[in-house]
């Protein structure tokens, strides 16, 4: 699954970040890395872009970009 | 005695409170922005302390030194080409890991660094405040508490800076142990003569660096980057970032602080403001409230200023003997300058609201809410800040579009910016709305601004279909935490803007009023003054809009600066009248309500003022786009005002 499949109240862990280099570089610079836990924190009227909570940060991503982030559900 | 001069560069993540601290350190009038790009060009300020002159340089807020974006490059090039004596690394105590990732880059580069641990109060209230002494010991450099809002930590910070500078600071070389393949690549690159930090930075930024890379180094670098990618499925940048975070987490483990709870109040605020259904209505509601308050609250101090202007006029009328001198003072200067001065409170209020939106963190949230709408018309989410800044003044707003990297999105943002009604046009609206629509003045004001926004979006939609896009820029943005705006920087900012407004009154508007008065007074003993002749000449063009020769000359004079429109109306209609009430009565008698509305619409849409045209020319690099902007404005203004007058006449 990818970030856009994360529903409210679910917590996921980042498995991999794909996509073009500048996207990966940007996410990396913001501290979005493999192994981190992610939640969906807000969505706009159109469902795009959405905001994800990663640690104490809230990061806005368009769905096209969010699709590049592979995640898995956390069960803890 | 000539004192020693030292340069201190302030560097930190966006939203870490860096600019507030800079203001406190230099006492200069600067503004803080919550979005990337408010500090695109670096700013400087000085301070004398203990016989030493400290020159502070405020670098743009960045996340990393090896990231291919405008702000990052500005900071990176500055640090490499003109290394400061000391880097003051501003670190947000509430988000230590990510902020320290940048610190590790500084230390690898062996830049002498002092850490200012900012936003400590915020972190303390959430129970995640790190221990400065412990952090200093772990990182082997001075770590000091700081607070851009209160001067309480300032002396300690300055003491440490001066002490460090006097002792010719050296930086401890930080060596992070990266993943083994990365280390092998670094090894091979250093074999070609690069330093370790240069090798790391080159890998991290895929060769976009400030220092020179020779061809053979560049070739090797490309091989290494490709190889790392093939081993790991991760880019070199990701692997190195993981190394940095690994190192930082090691530190945190030792200092016992890292935590990821968001406070309840913040969570609650976001759940309303960013709510899927409530978000946009709340945004529109806030904008309405902003214009309503600008009008209603601004009216009180405006009355006092008006009373003072009236008194001055009466006093001059009584004290100065009859003749030309009295006329120029009373009908030219007092009427013209006073006619604009009255709107100072409205302008101050508008700027206060914009500054509060920026500093509280709401602006970034509004950008998030409207991103989809913006991208529909070929704009970028980043266009939001320049557009809202346009409500203040289009000139800095157009310069702020430099953060938009995709050329088409930037060009469109520049061209539609004049439709964002700047504060110079506010006096005209406030004057006319107050006369013709006294009961719903705030709503009319809101409607005019909305019309401007609507027009901007329509034009953007059309332009985005005409101009080909170059590449798509991604919209990845961090929402800053909610913050109370600091009264100090709010006051500085508003004071600064009020000063701009006043100095414009003292220059452009003063001269403009005098000129209008001259044209209106001469030739004496003739049927029509020069101004009237000019007005009558052009009046046929404006007659379908319901406007007379007085409004025609007022609009003409607005080419210089939009505030002059109100001043001209005051001078032209003022003959014999001494206060605002007189001007209002004269306008009410001279214009139909629908024509008043048409005049507002024309003022909103017609060509940008001279300063804006000049900045459009400069930022787009050609007169062509400046001409497009002028023509577009004139055509839309005439059409819009025509429709307004014709349709409005049916109702009022």
Pick out its properties.
heterodimer, A: 76 residues, alpha+beta, 5-stranded antiparallel β-sheet, 2 helices, 17% helix, B: 652 residues, Rossmann fold, 3 domains, 6-stranded mixed β-sheet, 28 helices, 6% strand
Record the strand order, biggest sheet of chain A.
4-3-2-1-5
Instruction: Give the N-to-C terminal Cα separation of chain A.
Output: 18 Å
Cα-to-Cα separation, first versus last residue of chain B: 74 Å
- Sequence of strands across the biggest β-sheet of chain B: 2-3-1-4-5-6
Q: Work out the largest interface and the residue count of each chain.
A: A-B, 35 and 44 residues
Radius of gyration of chain B: 29 Å
Largest sheet of chain B: 6 strands, mixed
Question: Portion of residues in helices of chain B?
Answer: 55-70%
Gross geometry of chain B: elongated
Beta percentage of chain B is: 5-15%
Q: Do you know the CATH topology of chain A?
A: SH3 type barrels
Portion in beta strands of chain A: 35-45%
What string, H for helix and E for strand, traces the elements of chain A in order? EHEEEHE
**How many domains make up the 3D coordinates of chain A?**
1
Q: Structural class from helices and strands of chain B?
A: alpha/beta
CATH class of chain A: Mainly Beta
Q: What is the CATH homologous superfamily assignment of chain A?
A: Ferrous iron transport protein A (FeoA)
Q: Supply the number of structural domains of chain B.
A: 3
Low-confidence stretches of chain B: 31-39
Explain what the structure shows.
The complex is a heterodimer of chains A (76) and B (652). Chain A has a single domain (3-73), classed as Ferrous iron transport protein A (FeoA) (SH3 type barrels), CATH 2.30.30. Chain A is built from 2 helices and 5 strands. The model of chain A has no long low-confidence stretch (mean pLDDT 90). Chain A is of the alpha+beta class. Chain B has helices spanning 18-26, 70-81, 96-108, 120-125, 132-139, 154-166, 180-190, 196-205, 215-232, 236-255, 264-273, 279-319, 324-341, 344-360, 362-376, 384-389, 394-399, 407-416, 426-436, 441-466, 487-521, 530-542, 549-557, 563-574, 580-590, 593-605, 610-620, 623-651; strands spanning 4-12, 43-49, 52-58, 86-92, 113-118, 143-145, 477-479. In chain B, helix 12 packs across helix 20 (441-466). Chain B is elongated, with a radius of gyration of 29 Å. Chain A binds chain B through residues 16-17, 21-31, 33-34, 41-49, 51, 53, 55-62, 65, and chain B through 63-64, 67-69, 94-95, 97-98, 101, 205-206, 233-235, 237-238, 241-242, 245, 259-262, 270, 274-277, 279-280, 368-369, 371-372, 375, 381, 474-479, 481. Strand 4 (57-61) of chain A pairs antiparallel with strand 7 (477-479) of chain B, so a sheet runs across the interface.
């Amino acid at each position: 699954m990818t970030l856009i499949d994360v529903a409210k109240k679910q917590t996921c862990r980042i498995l991999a970040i794909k996509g073009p280099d500048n996207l990966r570089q940007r996410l990396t610079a913001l501290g979005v890395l493999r192994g981190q836990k992610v939640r969906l924190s807000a969505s706009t009227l159109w469902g795009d872009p959405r905001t994800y909570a990663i640690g104490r940060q809230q990061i806005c991503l368009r769905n096209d970009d969010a699709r590049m982030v592979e995640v898995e559900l956390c069960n803890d | 005695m000539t004192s020693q001069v030292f340069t201190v560069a302030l560097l930190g993540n966006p939203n870490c409170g860096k600019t507030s601290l800079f203001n406190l350190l230099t006492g200069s009038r600067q503004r803080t922005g919550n979005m990337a790009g408010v500090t695109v060009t670096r700013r400087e300020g000085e301070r004398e302390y203990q016989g030493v002159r400290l020159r502070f340089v405020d670098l743009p807020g960045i996340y990393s030194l090896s990231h291919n974006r405008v702000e990052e490059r500005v900071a990176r090039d500055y640090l490499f080409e003109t290394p400061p004596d000391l880097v003051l690394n501003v670190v947000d105590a509430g988000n230590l890991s990510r902020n320290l990732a940048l610190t590790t880059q500084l230390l690898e580069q062996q830049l002498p660094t002092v850490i200012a641990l900012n936003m400590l109060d915020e972190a303390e209230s959430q129970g995640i405040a790190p221990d400065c002494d412990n952090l200093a010991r772990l990182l082997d450099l001075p770590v000091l508490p700081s607070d851009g809002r209160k001067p309480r930590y300032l002396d300690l910070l300055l003491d440490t800076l001066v002490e460090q500078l006097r002792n010719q600071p050296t930086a401890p070389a930080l060596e992070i142990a990266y993943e083994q393949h990365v280390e092998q690549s670094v090894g091979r690159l250093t074999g070609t003569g690069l330093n370790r930090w240069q090798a790391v930075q080159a890998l991290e930024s895929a060769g976009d660096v400030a220092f020179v890379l020779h061809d053979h180094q560049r070739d090797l670098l490309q091989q290494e980057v490709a190889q790392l990618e093939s081993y790991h499925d991760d880019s070199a940048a990701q692997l190195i970032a993981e190394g940095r975070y690994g190192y930082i987490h090691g530190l945190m483990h030792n200092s016992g602080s890292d935590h990821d709870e968001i406070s309840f109040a913040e969570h609650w605020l976001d759940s309303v403001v960013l709510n899927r259904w409530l978000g946009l209505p709340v945004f529109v509601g806030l904008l309405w409230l902003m214009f309503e308050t600008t009008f209603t609250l601004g009216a009180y101090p405006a009355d006092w200023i008006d009373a003072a202007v009236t008194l001055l006029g009466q006093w001059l009328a009584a004290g100065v003997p009859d003749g030309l001198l009295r006329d120029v003072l009373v009908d030219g200067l007092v009427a013209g300058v006073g006619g604009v001065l009255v709107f100072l409170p409205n302008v101050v209020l508008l700027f206060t609201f914009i500054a509060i939106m920026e500093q509280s963190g709401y602006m970034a949230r509004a950008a998030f809410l409207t991103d989809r709408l913006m991208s529909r018309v070929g704009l970028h989410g980043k266009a939001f800040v320049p557009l809202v800044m346009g409500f203040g003044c289009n000139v800095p707003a157009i310069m702020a579009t430099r953060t938009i990297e995709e050329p088409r999105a930037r060009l469109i943002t520049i061209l539609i910016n004049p439709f964002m009604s700047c504060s110079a046009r506010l006096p005209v609206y406030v004057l006319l709305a107050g006369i013709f629509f006294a009961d719903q003045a705030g709503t009319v004001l809101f409607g005019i601004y909305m019309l401007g926004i609507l027009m901007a979006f329509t034009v953007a939609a059309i332009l985005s279909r005409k101009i080909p896009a170059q590449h798509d820029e991604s919209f990845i943005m961090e929402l800053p935490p909610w913050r109370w705006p600091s009264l100090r920087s709010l006051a500085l900012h508003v004071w600064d803007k009020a000063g701009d407004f006043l100095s414009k009154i003292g220059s452009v508007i003063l001269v403009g009023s005098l000129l209008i008065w001259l044209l209106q007074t001469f030739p004496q003993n003739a049927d029509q003054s020069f101004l009237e002749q000019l007005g009558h000449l052009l009046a046929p063009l404006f007659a379908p809009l319901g406007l007379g020769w007085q409004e025609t000359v007022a609009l003409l004079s607005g080419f210089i600066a939009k505030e002059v429109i109100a001043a001209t109306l005051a001078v032209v209609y003022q003959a014999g009248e001494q206060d605002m009430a007189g001007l209002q009565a004269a306008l009410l008698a001279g214009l139909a309500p629908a024509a008043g509305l048409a005049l507002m619409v024309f003022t909103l849409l017609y060509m940008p003022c001279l300063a804006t045209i000049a900045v459009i020319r400069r930022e787009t690099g050609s007169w062509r786009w400046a001409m497009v902007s002028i023509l577009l404005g004139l055509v839309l203004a005439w059409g819009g005002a025509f429709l307004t007058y014709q349709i409005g006449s049916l109702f009022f």
